[in-house]
User: What shape does this take?
Amino acid sequence: MKIEDGSRGNVAQVDEELRLHVKSVTLTGQEDVSRSLGRSFLANAMDTAPSLTTLTGNTSNLMYLQNTATDKNLIIERVTFSNDVPSLVGATVLGVALKNMVLGSIGANDVHIPVNLNFGSGVAAEALCHTWDESGTAGLSGLTAGVNLGSIVLGVGPIVAFEHTGVTLGPGDNIVLRVVNGSAGSNENTVHVLFHYLPLP
Assistant: This one.
């Protein structure tokens, strides 16, 4: 059986088991929000340099990202770390995420403006984002406390730490991304965060 829409001549087919035949396109949340709402963004720690140098034995806060919207959740689609030195037994390099660190007097920072991934959208991210400016050795300063969301051992190249995990920053919430360098020398590191917004439920 075929069903016609009655105006434009579009036809839907229903088979003998009453199943409607359709064509569908699967989009990630990031792609859907970018296309339909223009509220999909990329934040990276590349304001000072293409990669940031972390030194052996140091814990370096690379990025602070806070949701400053009052009526939207900030949904993190993916967090990707990158490293240029392999982790060895007893000399590991960790990518770490922390929830809701206390922001005091921020230091060693650049103010980062996340990029809207829909180039035709004029919407700006409702976020406060700081990235390390490579001064000092410990990354962003002025951050204390926080809850550890988890860590991942970094090898050479990009490593996805979180993807489609439902990490959601409500109004005022923040996430801090850091590298703990337990290797025998200096490393080059980057971090990228894909995120979008959805209205509060």
Summary: DSSP finds one helix and 18 strands in the chain.
